[in-house]
Amino acid sequence: xxxxxxxxxxxxxxxxxxxxxxxxxxxxxxxxxxxxxxxxxxxxxxxxxxxxxxxxxxxxxxxxxxxxxxxxxxxxxxxxxxxxxxxxxxxxxxxxxxxxxxxxxxxxxxxxxxxxxxxxxxxxxxxxxxxxxxxxxxxxxxxxxxxxxxxxxxxxxxxxxxxxxxxxxxxxxxxxxxxxxxxxxxxxxxxxxxxxxxxxxxxxxxxxxxxxxxxxxxxxxxxxxxxxxxxxxxxxxxxxxxxxxxxxxxxxxxxxxxxxxxxxxxxxxxxxxxxxxxxxxxxxxxxxxxxxxxxxxxxxxxxxxxxxxxxxxxxxxxxxxxxxxxxxxxxxxxxxxxxxxxxxxxxxxxxxxxxxxxxxxxxxxxxxxxxxxxxxxxxxxxxxxxxxxxxxxxxxxxxxxxxxxxxxxxxxxxxxxxxxxxxxxxxxxxxxxxxxxxxxxxxxxxxxxxxxxxxxxxxxxxxxxxxxxxxxxxxxxxxxxxxxxxxxxxx
Length: 491
Prior knowledge:
By secondary structure, the chain is mainly α. The chain has helices at residues 3-21, 24-30, 37-57, 72-95, 101-112, 127-142, 144-151, 159-166, 179-203, 208-219, 237-251, 254-263, 267-271, 273-296, 301-316, 331-340, 356-374, 391-419, 422-433, 441-444, 455-469, 473-477, and strands at residues 383-384, 387-388.
């Protein structure tokens, strides 16, 4: 890796992160919350200064041309470093509101990774505070790197490597020949859907500020809300179903949505194997849980269907918001909902988790392996949407799933030992790694808070949230000895 390439890109990203962090100042002025100007002004200036300083002190780092032939290892390092730095800088404003450094970092990482797990125990904060929480989720939902690829000409060439380094899905889908145009198209869809949701929430009776914050979080598959009871606090079936629909949209591939919109062919949805699997499993699990709620918890049909679909889609897409305190459900619907935590949304979506495409590949690979036992000479290919999936992608998928469960198990064991509570250990680990948000039980459930957890548990979850958002691979690569070969390029 070349130091000037790394510093050039990271310096640019830090600089523009600084400008983004100044955004809440507008909200502070609108609501005359002048005390909240200082936190974001400080964080913004710190980020801009750090970015300019980096590019100044490293020789040749200022050269724009340095990004034109960026290597994959450099892209992975830049993306991972940028997310870590983005987390640290995003946590700075929270310090001004009385959060300690660990809690501030936890809340910031939970925001930018769209996890939605919170350490807040009260919601007596200014509106600017809640706007920033939701904005961090919105920026993290589609990816801060994807945003900069869309708006910064310096990343026009280098963008491809960084684009796929930020969200290393099982396949490298793009919708235009130029990756910058792809990033721009994704952000236009993302922003457009967010605006539509703001309008619908407000029409449904939600205050305009809450509409904006909840829309930013929902389209990001996040979960943060200015309401202490999440979406349940609005007690509106119309709001529940609007949220359910848009959470489902957030968990579907934005690339597929772009193709449907531009080609004006809704039939493309039914022709896409991942979308059909996503839709089918969501409906099956929601109906199964609705039946369990009807018989085990005494819900009427309307409530059972509403809350079952809401919670299944919320957990599947890793949104994590709640229409009801599912920690109070009977064991059977809770157990069913727990299995949903391992499903994941579609690739190229705002959602987290393993992703439906990976489960499809794993299933088909296992099926072919069983057939090969009976027919050793058979030549079998894994196909998705009539396209043959290369063996290297299948191998990477198996490796990913293996390490996903290894990370989950390791986190669960460590947190269980620290907290002396297996429910907290297991659900906190998967909720952090899958960027889901709430766990189970009264402490870390949908109406609870992670504030009472030990500092070590919070740090483990913070790392797991970042690892889950970047889909493990960039972190695994960093353990390779060859990865850390850094060279200082001379004139």
